[in-house]
Design brief:
Largest sheet: 2 strands, antiparallel
Helix content: 55-70%
Strand order of the largest sheet: 1-2
Radius of gyration: 24 Å
Number of strands: 4
Distance between the termini: 45 Å
Length: 366
Amino acid sequence: MTSINGYTPYAQYGSAYARAAATQPSLADALNTAEAGGSNPLDPNAATNLTLSDAAKAKLASEAKTPDFATVTNDARAALDKLYAAAKVKGPIVDGKTTVDLSALDRRSLFAIATNNGGKFTPDEQSVASGELTNRFNAALAPAAAATSMTKNYTVVYKAALDYLDGASSEEKATATWSAQRDAVQKGYDAAKQKPDTAPSVSGDLVAGYLAKYPDGAPAGTTKTFSTVATNVRAALDAQASLAAEKGTELVYDPARKFGQLVDFSSIDNRSLSAITLNQDQKFSNQEIYAAKKELDSRNRANILASLKQSQQSGDPTQLSLGILQSYSAMSDEEKQASGWSPSFRDNVLQSYKSTSNILSILQGS
C-alpha cells in the first residue's frame, strides 16, 4: 500500500462516517412528502410556490439513479469475491503481496471497503482499498505537481488537490477526516495565491506531505508494455468490426462515409490511441492510424481549449501555459511522441509562462 511519509489519507476514516452523516431530507424527499400530504407546491394559495429549474430537475434525476450506500457496499463485497474467485485466492494479500487489482472499482465503492461499511470487510481488504484510494490521490496530483516543480507556482498542485477532494461522495464528505483535510488544503491554496512561489506551511496539509515524498510528481507506477497495449486495442477494434458485421454492415473510420458503422474511440484511452498512431508492431491500417491520430489531436485540442477558457474566466493569462504543462506531464512517453509534444515544446510553453508571469509582476508593481 502506498502511503505519504507513512501516512495514508484514507486510513483515518474508519466507520465513523456514518455517525457524522447528515440526516437532512433531500429535495426529492421534500417534494414527495408535500405530495403525500396533499399539499400542492404549485397551488397559488400555498405558502410557498416551488418551481424547479432545468438544472434542479437534472440533479433530481441524477440522484434518483444513484444507488444508496448499502447497495454500493453490497456490490463492492460481491465484486471482491468475484476478483478472488478469478484469481483463485482467498484474500487480497498473500505472503505480503497484493493478489487482486481494485482499479476497476469506483471511488465510492473503495471508500465503502476502506471504512468497513456494514462490517463486511476484513482489515486486509480495508488496507488494500485505502492503498488504491491513495494511489488515485497521487495520480490526481502528479501532473499538477510536475507543473509546480517547473513553474514554482504552488497554486497549481493545491488546486488539483481541492478538485480531488471535492470529487468525493457525500458519505466521504460527511467525515471529520475529509473536512479537516479539505480545510487544510484550502488554507494552503489561499496561502499559495498570496505567494505562488512559496510552499505553504499548514498543519495537516496533504499536499505538503505529498510534495515531500514526490516533489516532481508521483511516478506512474507499473504499466502494461506498449506492445501489450497495441495488442489489446487491436482486439478492441476487431470486436467493433465483428459487431458491425453481425448487423450486416462494416466498421468505418471516416465520418464522411454515408454507410457503415463509425468506429467508437470513446472507451479507448490516449495511450492506446498512441499505439495505433505510432503502429510500432505494424498491427494497424493507414485508415486506422489516420483516425486515431485525429482523435488524439482532438483530445489535445480540447485540453488546450479548456486551459484557454480557464485563463479567460480567471483573468489570469498564465493559466493557459499551466494547463498545457499539466497535460504534458500527464502524458506517457508514447503519447508525447504520437502528439508531437517534445521536450522543446514543453520548454517553449514553460518560457511563455515565465515571460507572462514577469509581465504581470511588472504591471502589478510587485
